[in-house]
Amino acid sequence: MIPGSFEYHRPQSKAEAFSLLEKFGDEGRILAGGHSLIPMMKLRMAVPENIIDIQSLADLKGISISSNTIEIGALTTQYEIIHSKELEAVCPILKEAALLIADPQIRYCGTIGGNVANGDPGNDMPALMQCLNAKYIMENASGEREVSAREFYHAAYFTALEEGEIVTKISIPVPASSSGYAYEKMKRKVGDYATAASAVLLTLNGNECISASIALTNVADIPLFAEEASSMLIGAPLGNRGANAEDVINKAIESLEAICEPASDARGSAEYRTKMAGQMTRQAINSALSRAQS
Amino acid sequence: MKKDINLTINGREVSVQAEPRTLLIHLLRDDLDITGPHIGCDTTHCGACTVDVDGRSVKACTFFAAQVDGANITTIEGIADDDGTLHAIQAAFMEKHGLQCGFCTPGMITRAYRLLKENPNPTEEEIRWGISGNLCRCTGYQNIVLAIRHAAETINAKEAAE
């Protein structure tokens, strides 16, 4: 499969990249790791006339961690996320999720910026970013702005990213060190997109759940932050699984299944995938509770 | 329009002209006559086209030639010594019978090469996850895993002796 012809550009600075984007408008596409765009171009489902390869933009690389905030450059690869000991120490769910993306070769190339900015509902990082309440920093020639991951996705491949903008950085609040977390993904084989996947982050005070955040991958045309289900866990005595804990979890999962709208496809019927979103969430809550320190 | 692409491939500096849309696997096979990396699925699944680009195992069917301008690439052709002595991984695939039809083998060995550079003493499980981007339809993977494990032992024993 041979992609259509295009002109190739490799800007050496952000300013040069912005001016190319402005010049080409919707005939220019940013290429980062290329592992979403190139397959689409080989199928001729994408036929950009100009490819702007941002691999040389050093400003978009690297991970920096302060006491409150993790900043990940958009060009940071899944491989780099998996192998960053510093990142694993403060936010281990990133590694857990990244290891479930594609396969080793693809993880050397695929970037976090591409994964979140592309708007493909099958991508894993968007729901995780919603769970972690991350913000995306987007820049163009006239400056930068930030949008919450929970507000970024409008429809499949339609996002808050405006023409001429590049997602340059992801900013994540450092989760409490006592928090429990899990990313549970059901897939048919290595390399597959999720049949359903669920990201859970919660904290306990004693046995009481004092914060909870759940988001879902690939069970709608956008990632889903399950706001109601998350809030239903808060205040419940989940820590020792006592009293009405199971009841609360069951009700939260019912509420979360109600917002799922997956397609019926080769991964299963809509009904099945909805139930699997519930099941992945149940597993993720259980795993998060076992990891949380009260 | 063709553009100049300069690469180091298997230690040799190469200058070639190609359209930007040329895929790396086609540049290697059609323009440079480096036919060890195979085209299996052509859809980023099978790993038969795996090559090493700047210390990363990548699938050459999902790279534009233009992206690797300036890169340092190793293919299966560059893994043995110059005098033809097989690399320990190649020797281990022979000894442990880590192949049947051989189609996936260049990708498997090139991937194993990077895996063992990063993790010189992998467990069986780490090997299986490490080669999870490479498909083999003949062997059932058993002997491939044995071969990579055996290669790790050979390399480590040799380094310990030095």
Descriptive report:
- The complex is a heterodimer of chains A (294) and B (162).
- Chain A has 294 residues and is α+β, with helices and mostly antiparallel strands.
- Chain A is 34% helix and 25% strand.
- Chain A has helices at residues 14-24, 37-42, 78-83, 85-90, 93-98, 104-109, 112-117, 125-131, 149-152, 227-233, 245-258, 270-291; strands at 7-9, 28-31, 50-53, 63-65, 69-73, 135-140, 143-148, 153-155, 158-159, 166-173, 180-186, 196-205, 208-217, 224-225.
- Chain A has a five-stranded antiparallel sheet with strand order 4-5-10-6-7.
- In chain A, strand 4 (63-65) and strand 5 (69-73) form a beta hairpin.
- The termini of chain A are far apart.
- Chain B is of the alpha+beta class.
- Helix content of chain B is 35%, strand content 15%.
- Chain B contains five helices and five strands, in the order E-E-H-E-E-E-H-H-H-H.
- Chain B has helices at 24-31, 88-95, 105-118, 124-130, 142-161; strands spanning 3-9, 12-18, 50-53, 56-59, 72-74.
- In chain B, a hairpin with a 2-residue loop joins strand 1 and strand 2.
- In chain B, helix 2 packs across helix 5.
- Chain B is globular and about 50 Å long.
- The termini of chain B are far apart.
- The mean pLDDT of chain B is 97.
- The interface between A and B is medium-sized, with 29 and 30 residues.
Question: How are the elements arranged and paired?
Answer:
The complex is a heterodimer of chains A (294) and B (162).
Chain A lengths: L6 E3 L4 H11 L3 E4 L5 H6 L7 E4 L9 E3 L3 E5 L4 H6 L1 H6 L2 H6 L5 H6 L2 H6 L7 H7 L3 E6 L2 E6 H4 E3 L2 E2 L6 E8 L6 E7 L9 E10 L2 E10 L6 E2 L1 H7 L11 H14 L11 H22 L3
Parallel strand pairs in A: 1-3, 2-3
Antiparallel strand pairs in A: 4-5, 5-10, 6-7, 6-10, 8-9, 11-12, 12-13, 13-14
Helix pairs in contact in A: 10-11, 11-12
Chain B lengths: L2 E7 L2 E7 L5 H8 L18 E4 L2 E4 L12 E3 L13 H8 L9 H14 L5 H7 L11 H20 L1
Parallel strand pairs in B: 1-5
Antiparallel strand pairs in B: 1-2, 3-4, 3-5
